[in-house]
Amino acid sequence: MAVRYFLTAALLAGLYVPVCQAVTTVSVSATASHAIPTTLLLQNRAFQQVTPGDTSSLDPWVAVNGAELEVIADTDPVSSALPNSLQVMIPSAATGSVGVSNPGYWGINVNSSWTYNASLYYRFPSESSYSGTLTVGLESDSGEVFASNSTTINGSQTSWANVFLTLTPSSSATNTNNSFFVTVNGSEAAGETINFALFSLFPPTYKDRPNGMRIDIAETLAGMKPAFFRFPGGNNLGESFDTRWQWNATVGSLLDRPGRVGDWGYVNTDGLGLLEYLYFFEDVGMQPIMAVWAGYSLDGDSEPEDALAPFIQQAIDQINFVVGDPSTSDAAALRASLGHPDPFYLQYVEIGNEDFFASDSYTYRWPDFYGNLSAAFPNLTFIATAYPFDPVIYPTPPHYDVHVYQTPDWFIENAFYYDSFERNGTTYFELTDNIQGEYASISTNASNLYGTAAEGRFLYPTVQSSTAEAAFMTGLERNSDIVFAASYAPLLNLVNDSQWLFSVNVGDEYLPSTLPTESGSLFWTISRNSTSNDVFIKVVNPASDDQDVLFDLAFTTVASTGTLQLLHGGQNDSNTPTTPDLVTPQTSTIATGQTFNYTAPSYSVSVITVNVS
Ligand SMILES: *[C@@H]1O[C@H](CO)[C@@H](O)[C@H](O)[C@H]1NC(C)=O
Ligand SMILES: *[C@@H]1O[C@H](CO)[C@@H](O)[C@H](O)[C@H]1NC(C)=O
Ligand SMILES: *[C@@H]1O[C@H](CO)[C@@H](O)[C@H](O)[C@H]1NC(C)=O
Ligand SMILES: *[C@@H]1O[C@H](CO)[C@@H](O)[C@H](O)[C@H]1NC(C)=O
Ligand SMILES: *[C@@H]1O[C@H](CO)[C@@H](O)[C@H](O)[C@H]1NC(C)=O
Ligand SMILES: *[C@@H]1O[C@H](CO)[C@@H](O)[C@H](O)[C@H]1NC(C)=O
Ligand SMILES: *[C@@H]1O[C@H](CO)[C@@H](O)[C@H](O)[C@H]1NC(C)=O
Ligand SMILES: *[C@@H]1O[C@H](CO)[C@@H](O)[C@H](O)[C@H]1NC(C)=O
Ligand SMILES: *[C@@H]1O[C@H](CO)[C@@H](O)[C@H](O)[C@H]1NC(C)=O
Ligand SMILES: *[C@@H]1O[C@H](CO)[C@@H](O)[C@H](O)[C@H]1NC(C)=O
Ligand SMILES: *[C@@H]1O[C@H](CO)[C@@H](O)[C@H](O)[C@H]1NC(C)=O
Ligand SMILES: *[C@@H]1O[C@H](CO)[C@@H](O)[C@H](O)[C@H]1NC(C)=O
């Protein structure tokens, strides 16, 4: 058993008392020191579009039965925002079903409980006397057709027309190796050329929202009870000036959304636009933390101060789209015309993203954006994205958004990061979503955090990385008077299990207790739900040895049993697609009381829930 120094509850009276002891004793105050804001998370994904000329412009479309395919810059595009079409040429000797198919995003889930909405636009670039059947459907990679539906089209249609057909599979596919196909009868259409644009295939969505969210993912997220959602995806505000996210390019008809190259290099179609995001937040019951583009792109370009005015106005328009009055704002009137006359809930607006990379220009961009936006929206709260006090910016930001991607050891060593921060009204939004792997603790190699797996980067989060993050999170909960939010990627894995443990088991009050040792390897944080009187004791052991702890709860009555939720595994265990349930939280009943012993296993996160009065 490790011998360690610890701070006793005397610290609360201003005394620092190092004591040598074998079992850590944790005294828990029955009186709360501060209220805990609820915390948590998120992340998401958009669609993609194609660009003519590139060899990859067809990906992942493939020809069916000898059709010749080409992505063209259409002379008469379906809309000015969507200038390209997929031109399908039916060979003159064609027979059978001829056309195109698309395997989706790594496959398509074919579920006979669902009805899918299929939609496309088509036109004949040259008028012809053709009339025939167009079929859309879903099939397996061995050609088994699960669903199909047809309509008649003809060669007099030289302007764009929409086809909308529903697909109801007769059976579910056993795997996701399935494709969506669009074909014509080759005997009828031999020699014809047809242009297609804006295909869409949607299963039912969460709350049946058009362009909405996958039900399974949205329900999983909702189950984690997230308090907020930061959007449009942090870094996704723009890698360059030309590709910056612009709210007005993401609303209205899909035909009017040009899409953009997102910050990770692939195309976002912006089918998931500002309005879809806002409905999603309402449907899940979480609040947005909305970013506005603030004159800086991640490639290093900053707009000069005298060029900022139109971007400040665009940010004002964006906020008005969310909360403005339709009778005084065109952007708000647009929202009303799209079906939501009432304002959406919005409290937090983040000015820029990762402006610590552009520290110098933020000294003028922050005051200009903050000054104008806070004058236009006095009720909103604004968040700065430079490092706290580096550079020093005025007016002093009410909040900072801090990003951390680090090693497990860093997270353990920094569990006290916020304890020394001055309590003066400035608070911090601790953002731990990883820009690539979506994990906070991303590597064991501090000198090459973004290296390869062989160089120490985690392919999947491990029990070691997760417990280290949990240790850090005990510091976030303890300092929740100044750390008002923390976010993480929403993938369903070990990390999120631990995240889930933290988010679902949180009280509304923080109970002071003996502080963990700053340089130690056992961490805890204790909160209480003041309505139900449940106390949540979260104990994190990110070390390789089991550790004993004695809890001493200063309540008059403490239940004799409590519930233990334990996440525990081997140092390098990971939940992966092939071992999705290797490490999952296990629930059991344990003996509790005003004083009780607990052994925190190596590499574990424990949540002990016990009722008090
Ligand atoms: C199929 O749909 C039903 C009803 O929505 C759902 O319960 C089930 O999980 C779905 N199955 C798959 C494999 O998606
Ligand atoms: C051909 O299509 C056009 C537009 O869809 C329609 O108006 C017309 O009636 C069709 N003609 C025939 C012969 O089906
Ligand atoms: C084909 O789509 C139409 C239009 O949505 C729908 O009314 C019809 O029921 C569908 N037919 C089949 C066989 O799914
Ligand atoms: C799906 O298709 C891929 C590529 O053809 C193949 O490697 C994989 O085994 C298939 N999966 C299933 C479950 O059939
Ligand atoms: C294709 O069209 C030809 C000529 O109209 C017809 O004989 C044949 O039955 C059609 N094939 C299918 C699969 O509908
Ligand atoms: C599918 O189409 C139906 C009929 O137009 C519509 O009511 C439903 O909302 C659509 N579903 C989605 C997810 O867009
Ligand atoms: C969005 O608005 C800006 C002005 O704020 C304008 O320059 C841009 O063209 C608009 N984009 C679209 C797609 O409407
Ligand atoms: C608004 O922004 C402009 C720069 O476009 C700046 O000159 C002005 O000081 C700002 N107004 C406020 C109130 O900060
Ligand atoms: C702003 O806040 C004040 C005070 O809380 C409130 O009276 C007012 O209605 C709010 N204004 C808006 C536009 O929400
Ligand atoms: C809070 O304290 C920090 C660090 O001492 C300081 O830089 C910051 O300006 C202070 N905030 C306010 C609102 O005084
Ligand atoms: C506290 O407990 C009450 C009663 O069980 C519950 O309704 C409420 O949601 C809980 N509060 C929090 C912050 O979880
Ligand atoms: C806790 O463990 C210590 C050492 O094993 C033991 O002396 C003590 O009686 C235990 N306390 C309780 C409340 O079980």
UniProtKB/TrEMBL annotation:
GO biological process assignments:
arabinan catabolic process; L-arabinose metabolic process
Q: Which GO terms describe its molecular function?
A: alpha-L-arabinofuranosidase activity
Q: Which InterPro entries match?
A: Alpha-L-AF_C (IPR010720), ASD1_cat (IPR055235), GH (IPR017853), Glyco_hydro_b (IPR013780), Glycosyl_Hydrolase_51 (IPR051563)
Q: Does the keyword Hydrolase apply?
A: yes
Q: In which pathway does it act?
A: Glycan metabolism; L-arabinan degradation
Catalysed reactions, as listed in the record = Hydrolysis of terminal non-reducing alpha-L-arabinofuranoside residues in alpha-L-arabinosides
Q: Where is the Alpha-L-arabinofuranosidase C-terminal domain?
A: 437-604
Q: Does the keyword ATP-binding apply?
A: no
Under Enzyme Commission nomenclature, its number is: 3.2.1.55
Q: Where is the signal peptide?
A: 1-22
* A Pfam short name: Alpha-L-AF_C
- Which top-rank group of organisms is this from? Eukaryota
Keywords (A to Z) from UniProt:
Glycoprotein, Hydrolase, Signal
Task: Please state which protein family the record places this protein in.
Answer: Belongs to the glycosyl hydrolase 51 family.
Record-given protein name: non-reducing end alpha-L-arabinofuranosidase
The scientific name of the source species is: Daedalea quercina L-15889
